[in-house]
Specification:
about 210 residues, two-stranded antiparallel sheet
Length: about 210
């Protein structure tokens, strides 16, 4: 859907942001962003979903083990959501122009986040044959990647004001693939995304007329 010769508008009526730092960003034009100085992270949905064209990595029963899987269990998915909120509080700290709140009002941007299409570089650690082997280790070039998608809404009307989507991955570096390293990589992805998101909010707020 197009609006004007150069503007792409999505189904929510948002205009695509050219040269966005994130993979994909849309924003509602003519929004007065100056009124917003509070953020509420309302929902953090972490899931094992993938796009229809996704092909999971092949699992070798001999080397990986018969129970190896690339799907994270519910407990890990919940923890990933909790970790996102913890990183958000560190990024949006008291030195920043936005306050994180739990109740929305007219000055609040309500943010819903979906963390999805999680692609691990190796099967889940506890599911691998090497996990129970003495001295068994797995080395990978990175922990993998994931997609973070967010929608930003007005705290009173619920109108969608912006949407953003980005695939994040830790810096490629060969290392032992364990839960300790994986969680560290995940927090780095979260921190990078939230910092980019915060800087975008600051720019759009400063640029509002």
């Amino acid at each position: 859907m197009q609006s004007g010769p150069d503007k792409e508008v999505n189904e929510a009526g948002l205009t695509r942001v050219d040269n966005s730092v994130l993979d994909l960003s849309y924003i509602r034009e003519d929004t007065d962003w100056r009124q917003y100085h509070k953020l509420m992270f309302a929902q953090i949905n972490v899931n094992n979903d993938h796009p229809d064209d996704y092909r999971p990595p092949r699992i070798d029963p001999l080397t990986d083990g018969p129970n190896a899987t690339y799907d994270l269990d519910d407990q890990t998915l919940r923890k990933m959501g909790e970790e996102f909120i913890e990183v958000a509080y560190r990024v949006f700290n008291e030195d920043q122009p936005f306050e994180i709140v739990t109740v929305a009002d007219a000055n609040t941007l309500v943010i819903n986040v979906v963390i999805t299409d999680i692609r691990l570089a190796a099967p889940v650690e506890k599911s691998r044959r090497s996990y129970n082997s003495i001295g068994g280790t797995t080395y990978t070039e990175s922990s993998g990647s994931l997609v973070i998608a967010a929608s930003v809404k007005d705290g009173v009307s619920g109108e969608i004001l912006a949407q953003a989507l980005d695939r994040g991955a830790a810096i490629d570096q060969w290392k032992q693939n364990t839960q300790v390293f994986n969680w560290g990589d995940m927090r780095t992805i979260y921190r990078n995304w939230l910092t980019t998101f915060k800087n975008g909010l600051m720019r759009v707020t400063a640029g509002s007329n």
